[in-house]
Write a structure and sequence with these properties.
This protein has 288 residues and is of the alpha/beta class. The protein has a single domain, classed as Rossmann fold. Helix content is 44%, strand content 18%. The protein is built from 15 helices and eight strands. An eight-stranded mixed beta sheet has the order 1-2-4-3-5-6-7-8, with helices on both faces. Helix 1 links the parallel strand 3 and strand 4. Helix 2 packs across helix 3 and helix 7 crosses helix 10. The longest helix is centred in the N-terminal third of the chain and has 14 residues. The radius of gyration is 17 Å and the shape is globular. The relative contact order is 0.16.
């Protein structure tokens, strides 16, 4: 895994972003979700690198990237700021036109990236999410029960931080096992925990969700009627809540004037790890 990839850091004014880069060809940016790191792409990165230049960062606040302290308005972890990190990273590498795939929180950053940098993102693939605004607007008892972590993590500083710090492994394992329906993460589990358990990363991930419930919604409502003009691919697991509650292709079609394609995959939430061969096939076809 990551056979011919190089480990690098991209330095911004007040933050450093860790990333791996490998392969050659058209550039693809891969963004991870919660509570993970870039490592979630390990099963498909080498194969993608045979056709593409693949850039796989840790989002700010996750993995080996820096975790600045949050602010009262949660701007530091707004998807706009996180997307800006990614745009500047790609620009620094000379990639002014690129495609992006994002899973979970990374999918939300990818969506904002496509909205804020419309002349740069040419294709968008989102894995096991519907847009944040749509999901909050459809909140009911069923949603709140399954997605209780959304409402726990957004509680004021530092209540959720203190709770998670008591046993980071218990919380992280609960997320991984519950959302995957018991998938064995093996080596990946220790890789995730190594970084997730850090105090600054626990705080950062809470701020990520706090931003999602506040400033991100402000930005999303403002852009609600500004359709993208790029193809979107939506992939989701048949064992997850997105499949049960929503019609992803229909919802994502509201966000672009181009055609939305996609498929339901027989798995839980963590598509690239649970079904790597299928996800590789879908991404290769979409981005080629």
């Amino acid at each position: 895994m990551f056979k011919d990839f190089k480990n690098k850091f991209f330095k911004l004014k007040n933050i450093k972003i860790f990333y791996k880069i490998g392969g050659k060809g058209k550039p693809i940016l891969l963004l991870h979700g919660y509570p993970q790191t870039h490592f979630m792409w390990s099963k498909i990165a080498d194969q993608l690198a045979k056709k593409f230049t693949v850039i796989i960062p840790d989002l700010r606040g996750y993995g080996q990237s820096m975790s600045p302290k949050g602010d009262k308005n949660h701007k530091t972890y707004s998807k706009r700021e996180m997307a800006k990190d990614m745009y500047l990273l790609m620009k620094s590498l000379g990639h002014l036109k690129f495609s992006v795939a994002g899973h979970d929180r990374g999918g939300r950053v990818a969506h904002r990236l496509a909205r804020d940098y419309r002349n740069n993102v040419i294709k968008l693939s989102v894995l096991d999410i519907c847009p944040t605004l749509d999901m909050y607007q459809s909140t009911d008892k069923e949603f709140a029960t399954v997605y209780f972590h959304w409402f726990f993590l957004i509680q004021p500083f530092d209540f959720p931080e203190r709770m998670i710090k008591q046993n980071p492994a218990l919380w992280m394992d609960n997320c991984l096992q519950k959302w995957s329906k018991g998938f064995d993460f093996k080596k990946a589990r220790n890789e995730y925990l190594k970084y997730f358990k850090k105090d600054e990363n626990i705080h950062a991930s809470c701020e990520d969700y706090r931003a999602g419930a506040t400033i991100d919604l402000v930005h999303d409502r403002k852009d609600k009627n500004k359709k993208l003009n790029i193809p979107i691919q939506a992939l989701w697991g048949n064992q997850g809540f997105v499949h049960k509650k929503y019609k992803p292709i229909k919802i994502w079609q509201q966000y672009t004037s181009k055609k939305v394609v996609g498929s339901v995959i027989k798995c839980g939430h963590f598509l690239p790890e649970e079904k790597p061969k299928e996800i590789l096939k879908h991404l290769n076809k979409f981005f080629s």
